[in-house]
Each structure stands twice: as C-alpha cells, then as structure tokens.
From TrEMBL:
The keyword ATP-binding does not apply. This is Serine hydrolase domain-containing protein. It comes from the Bacteria. It comes from Nitratireductor aquimarinus. The keyword Hydrolase applies. GO terms for molecular function: hydrolase activity. Keywords: Hydrolase. Its EC number is 3.1.1.103. InterPro entries: Beta-lactam-related, Beta-lactam/transpept-like, Diverse_Enzym_Activities. Transmembrane segments: none annotated. Residues 25-317 form the Beta-lactamase-related domain. SUPFAM superfamilies: beta-lactamase/transpeptidase-like. PANTHER family: BETA-LACTAMASE FAMILY PROTEIN (AFU_ORTHOLOGUE AFUA_5G07500), BETA-LACTAMASE-RELATED. Gene3D superfamilies: DD-peptidase/beta-lactamase superfamily.
Amino acid sequence: MAERDWAAAENAALEGLGAWPADGPGGVVLGIENGSVRLVAAAGHAGVGGAPLGTDSVFRWASVTKHVFAACLVESGVLPLDMTLGEALLELAAAPASVTVAQALAMQGGLPDPRESLTLLGFGSLTRTEAAPLHHWMAGFDWLNARPGHEVAYSNGGYRLLETALARRGFVFSDMVADHAQRLGIGMRASEYWTDPVPGLVPGHEPASPGWSEGFQGMHLSAAGSLSGSARDLAVWLSDLMARDVFAQIARPLPLGSGEATGYGLGIALTQIGAERVPGHGGAQAGYRAGFLCAPEEGIALVALSNRDDGDATGLAARVWARLRGVPQAQMPKPAGDWAPPGLYVAEEGGLWAEVKKNAIVVRDAEEALFAGDDGQFVSAAPHARMRLAYTDGALSGDLFHQPVRLLPVRVCDEEPELDGRWMSDGAIVTIRGRTLHWGAGPLQTEATLKPLGNGRWLFNAMGRRICLQRLAPDRFILSLARARGVEYCRL
C-alpha cells in the first residue's frame, strides 16, 4: 500500500490556499479515502460580502466535466469507441468524419475547437451562441488541426459533437448526470448556458482594474465543460466512479496511431508525481479553476476548486498529493528557469510559432509551464500538451505534442504582407492596409498591427489573443490559434 499522510497533505493545502488574500475569492481542497473525509481546507469567500467558501460551496467544474461525459458515453454502449464520427453524425464533412470516438475523447482527433474558431471569425467570448447553429456550423468544417491519431492536442470539439450523437440515440447528457446525482444524493448538474440558474453557485472572479470582475461565457455550454457542483459532490462522484469498471476504461491512455504511448485517456490524464502516475484532470472557465487526482485501488480522491481565475487548482492538487505521498522535494519537478533566450521563435514553414518565457513556453498563444528534464531538455507536466525541448545550435528542437519540431528565432525583417484589401471567411470580414488589420464594425472595430514572423507569417493581437496570419496565396490566408489552426479567408 502506498504511503499516505493526510495531516501533511492538509498542511500543504492550507499553505497553498493561504497564498491568496483572505478577503478575496479563494478555494476549497477536499480529500476522501474509501468514502470518509480525511482532509478539508478552505479559504476566501463566495463574493464581495459573501459567505466563506466551504466543501458545499458550488463551483463550475469546467473541463473536469469531460471524464463524467466519457464515463456516461462508455456505459451507454451506443457509441463504440472504434466508431467514426461520420457514422455517428452523418452530416459531418469528410475531414472530421474520419475521426473515431476514442480519438475525439482522447484529444487525438485534430478537431478544431469551436471557441477558438469563433475567435478567428471575430466573435469575442461574451457573444452568445446557440446549440443548434453551433452544431450546424461545426459539422461543415472540412479541415482538421492535425491528422487523427498523429498528436495529442487539446480541443473541446470532439466532446460537443459526441454529446449531440449521444442525444440522438436517446441518451441526453444532462439527464444522465441528473440520474447519477439523484442516485448518489449530490448536487452535480449540467447547464446549457452560463445564465442558467444554478442553486448555490458562487461567482467566478477574473482580475480587473481595480479588484475583480465576474466571469462570463456566451457560447453554449457542452459536455466539454457544462457541470457544476461542490467539492463534496465531486468527491462523492469520484468515490463511486472508482468502484465501477468504467473507470479503468476511461483512465487507460490511448496510444497514438503509431503505437506510441501517451498520458491521456478518455477525459482522464495521468500526471507524474514522484514515481506515481496519478489519474486526474483539470479545468478552467472564466473565473473558475478545478482539478482532481485519485488512486482507485485505495479509494482516494483529492479535489481542488477555486472561484478565482488565477487559482491554480491542478497545481495545488499536485502539491497536496505529493505531500500526501511523502514525495521528497528533490523528486518534485524543478522550474525550467531561464531555459532558452527569451523571445519569439517560428518553424521554417507553416503557422507554428512560440515564445520563450522564464519557466514556460507559449505555443500558438497557449502557455505551458516547463520543468527541467533529463539530458538538458525541458519538459511540460501536462499529458495533453507534451513538450520536450532544448535550446541547441541557436534553435529550439525536440518535440511538441509527440511531433518533432525545430523552431528558429524570429529575425527583424521588413517583409510587407501585400494583402491590401477586404477578406472574408464564413461571413466575417477583415480589411488590411499595409501592416494594419481592421476587424469588426462600428464601435466594436478592432485595429491591429501585423508583426512579421518571416516567410509569409504575421502575428497580431485581437480579443486578448495573439493570432497568426499565414499567407497561402495572393488571394488566400489562414488564421490560427492553438486549438483552431485553419480558418481560411479569401479576398473579396
């Protein structure tokens, strides 16, 4: 039986939560073993003038939802894991139709993420979108971020598509969640929209100047992140799930098509903590952070929930787990530090770019922490964003998402876009004059400056993101972010 020290774990939880000011939003950490509560730590409040947070405070679970959906799908038995999405949803375009159910759940489908695709059409995160039009729009995407089974790269697209496929066969996710909640006597529930009433929900907080603002998402929620509940609710659900056969099925990492091992299963990731690979998952939504880790053979579940946007729930859970297991500090990952010269890097061709930062790297505008690895390499801890890189011979080399890469520093250049005119993608219009890009209309118009990356690529800032523009031909270019890499614009 593996070592466990609940007193040490509780001290670690209190230390982590204590780093946040007591008069602001905070978080909750809860640990259970074989159904008995062994650790409780809480700090902060539900909102200005609100009640202190506790184990029954209700949070949004964000992407922690994914493993719940995967378990429901597998237990329904109506969508075999080797079925293609084209068989499940006949209206899909050819590219997504080739992806299997397992690949969609295991982040191997290369499916475009709908939220980032909306961003590339100029729609901000506050814009409301409805379920049926979203599905119709996504079904027409005839492109993928990568070949199915070729890399592990995060996207919510597969979960949204499979929720629709499951519902058409009579299995509505929100109803399945409600049935489990009633069976277990917990408050776990699925919402369709951010504005749906959720009893006891604490507001999520995003940093603002001054103070905080309340988080909001306009896009219709899906099985990628629609659940809410308390820390106690999540712990009870996990305790029950670990005793069912389906847990082993969804926690088993899916190999790539080449047979290469990965650390990501069906809504469950395996995180290396000391000598142990621990099943769990994290989640992030506007103003909320969530994470859990568990040991099914021992009936242990550790839950961390926060109502502040900077609340690193997954990192906190990992530190508490390490203390629970008595992992020496020397065995914990060491931050990468100044691991490479800071600045922008880019592949010789295509839309892959990165920015080196202290202890981290930003890839296509998605940031990941890096840690010192073996043989002078620097690695990520996230199974869904595997990175192993080193700075040698003036370049970053290694692999990203299981694929070999070589990135060169961006050189100062005077390359002009030569893209003057008006451009359209799916009704969205941008106008370019020299190195200035105009997006939107009226008071919502955005003006951005195109920064050259070389070889027909430029970066620009819009809606709080850095977007890459890659010229394909005199009359075509594509825009890309980490989870949506192929929104194409054509000259009008």
